[in-house]
Amino acid sequence: MPSRYYAFAIAVAVFIGSLVLEFVFRAPWVTWPLITISGFLSLVGFIDVTQTRQAIRRNYPILSHFRFFFEYIRPEIRQYFIESDNESSPFSRASRSLVYQRAKKESDKRPFGTQLDVYEPGYEWINHSVSPAAPSTPDFRRTIGETSKQPYSASVFNVSAMSFGALSANAIRALNQGAKMGGFAHDTGEGSISRYHREMGGDLIWELGSGYFGCRTADGKFDPVRFAEQAQDPQVKMVELKLSQGAKPGHGGVLPGPKVTAEIAEARGVPVGVDCVSPAKHSVFSNPVELLEFIAKMRELSGGKPAGMKLAIGHPWEFFAIAKAMVKTGLTPDFIVVDGSEGGTGAAPVEFTDHVGVPLREGLMLVHNTLVGIGVRDRVKLGASGKIVSAFDIAKTLAMGADWCNSARGFMFALGCIQAQSCHTGTCPTGVTTQDPLRQRALVVPSKAERVNEFHKSTLHALSELLAAAGLTHPDQLRPEHIIRRISSTEVTSLATLYKFLKPGSLLQEASGHQVFEYYWKRARAESFALAS
């Protein structure tokens, strides 16, 4: 029996033992207090393991109530008892609380004004209008792959890439069912399409990583026949080539053999019990032109569905090389998802998490400016991911040039994640990131799917209210000048003046006036990712 059930088991044992003592020894002054207390605790434990709303209670009967008690009185005791290094981050506390409120249909109103220091450099806000607009219907969508055979109308807020194996079967089911209920997309992550992605029928974006899981040969190479079989499934709406992820770009990964269960092996197309390797680099291309040709091949094999790529920006000249290959060949992806270095994962080396890769804002600006500068921004849609949770996060990111946003941690919070930071241990207390059947049983799919849907719906409703306050009716109208940032205790500026935006086609004349472009653009080559000397 798992140790987390010991309190429940002890309560039941004491209750039964007390009843036996009462009937055998007739000592009511001793046994009745024990019967009363242990009977009450046994009843609490029984209710905990059978209820379906709270995963913590199902996994930690009786013991979980101590946590709830401390949460209840947290304004008085938080600094002494329950603040960890992780929870001390204002982002962690505020964003998680906001998601919980919206996912549970609770009020997200707050008294006594902002808890942020509005005079701290980095504070941001959206300016309002003296003539606010009426809030519009918050089903904001973007058409991706307008020139492809099967364009996709995507929500501006979708589930970011999280693989089966990293998440539990029940977590995948709940996310996909929630996506179907709310009409938004669910990115599979590079672990391929599992049976659990297919059960609920929600829209899928199939992410293909360097391991080519779900469409690989026995020696780990890309298999076009298997790819076409999966990509042409009507549930798959777009196909996405993952070059890198923000949490550990350029690293690759290994799922140890003992963790490669029959279910994971089935989804990924690998042997059971054998190390499952995601190489740090792809084998299907070696230069920018081949990369674009492969994305075009993905589009063709999928039956004409939008095909694109996801990457965390690193060396700027490498993306410039991809852009020059677009100009040279005329081939463009239907979309690019920019993943910021602040994005998370279940486990990554500390140095990679903290010091490798470009943050989302700078990465998004580089990609947006480059596409504008070569005159293809209208053909290539931009997605963005990296600590995007609230409606303001979405508004700010769209104002900086993105067409839609993806969120991983926001939807994990909606599933019940409490940031226990045990994702890599298999002991997730809420059943979100574990393959333990007993632990993931605590995550009840219909209940959590409804919370996923409600979080999405409430967040877009909040976005519509933000837009209306600014006098806007649709995210298309957001511009950099709508977002203001404090850069010192006495200075503020809009994103329009803080960042330099290129003019359409300016890079084709090689006259950008932007320092990074001036230094690296001329030395980037369509034929190689390397910088010309």
What does this protein look like?
The chain has 533 residues and is an alpha/beta fold. The chain folds into two domains: 81 residues, no CATH class; 381 residues, TIM Barrel, CATH 3.20.20. The protein is built from 20 helices and 15 strands. The strands form four sheets. Strands 4-13-12-11-10-7-6-5 form an eight-stranded parallel β-sheet. A three-stranded antiparallel β-sheet has the order 1-14-15. The protein has a two-stranded antiparallel ribbon with strand order 2-3. Strand 14 and strand 15 form a beta hairpin.
Key descriptive features of the protein:
533 residues; alpha/beta; TIM Barrel; 2 domains; 8-stranded parallel sheet; 20 helices
Query: In angstroms, what separates the terminal alpha carbons?
Result: 64 Å
Strand fraction: 5-15%
> Can you count the helices?
20
Q: List the domain count as a whole number.
A: 2
- CATH first level of the largest domain: Alpha Beta
Mean pLDDT: 88
Q: What is the fold-level CATH name, i.e. the topology of the largest domain?
A: TIM Barrel
In terms of structural class, how would the helical and strand content be classed?
A: alpha/beta
Spatial shape: globular
Number of strands: 15
Major sheet, described briefly?
A: 8 strands, parallel
Helicity, as a percent range: 40-55%
What would you say the CATH architecture of the largest domain is? Alpha-Beta Barrel
